[in-house]
Design goal:
- With about 220 residues, the protein is an alpha/beta fold.
- It has nine helices and five strands.
- Helix 3 runs antiparallel to helix 4.
- The longest helix is centred in the middle third of the chain and has 26 residues.
- About 35% of the residues are buried.
- The protein binds thymidine-5'-phosphate.
- Thymidine-5'-phosphate (TMP) binds next to helix 5.
Length: about 220
């Protein structure tokens, strides 16, 4: 067997999309997935809460059932633990790229900023569940809460989080921006009020840089 056949695959990259509800992430997640695939990578496109059969069951509870704030945070991290073990870690180890619609920054923004759970408790859960893993790149879709609210489709039933008031989303947005400043090297803040094409072009520029970067 030659040396090259013995080599472990180069670890894949993890990209996360974040932002308050109504920020317009979905279209860009699909476009980014296609873009990275066109560049020859195998991409696992996934979401949180969710991404495995068990985590999707937890998602259903989390989005539709009232519960204690700490229960909510613990279930978010329980579903994340499952998602990491079943999907994210194996994919990265195979050399695949992972694109996730939300990850731990959402827990800081929603349970921490929005609901007011002490940040130190979330940091403890993060240390427990993924002490050595952070996304390589995080796109934070940022826009005023009023604009995001107007975008949420008025004709469909809103889930538990989408029904929250303006103050909740302003606090979530502020926590997202605080984290973007604290962890600036991995965050790219996207002005989500702009047209889809303009945002898409900006994302492709950043994705191109990551595709060209060293493993
Ligand atoms: P989605 O609708 O973008 O898929 O996200 C589901 C909802 O769950 C969204 O309102 C944000 C919320 N959420 C949290 O509150 N904490 C978390 O850790 C995650 C991942 C999502």
């Amino acid at each position: 067997m030659s040396i090259s056949e013995n080599k472990l695959p180069v670890r894949g990259k993890m990209i996360t999309f974040e932002g308050i509800d109504g920020a317009g992430k979905s279209t860009h997640i699909a476009m980014a997935t296609e873009f990275v695939r066109r560049h020859g990578k195998t991409v696992v496109s996934t979401r949180e809460p969710g991404g495995t059969p068990l985590a999707e069951k937890l998602r259903d509870l989390l989005l539709h059932q009232d519960m204690h704030l700490e229960t909510e945070a613990l279930l978010m991290f329980a579903s994340r633990r499952e998602h990491l073990a079943q999907v994210i870690e194996p994919a990265l180890a195979r050399g695949d790229w992972v694109i996730s619609d939300r990850f731990t920054d959402a827990s800081f923004a929603y349970q921490g900023g929005g609901r007011g759970l002490p940040i130190a408790k979330l940091e403890a859960l993060e240390q427990w569940v993924h002490p050595h893993l952070q996304p390589d790149l995080t796109f934070l879709f940022d826009l005023p809460v009023e604009v995001a609210r107007a975008r949420l489709d008025a004709t469909r039933t809103l889930d538990k989080f989408e029904q929250e008031r303006t103050g909740f989303f302003n606090r979530a947005r502020a926590e997202y921006l605080r984290r973007a400043a604290q962890f600036a090297p991995r965050f790219r803040v996207v002005d989500a009020t702009r047209a889809v094409d303009a945002i898409g072009a900006q994302l492709q520029g950043w994705l191109g840089e990551l595709l060209e970067s060293r493993p």
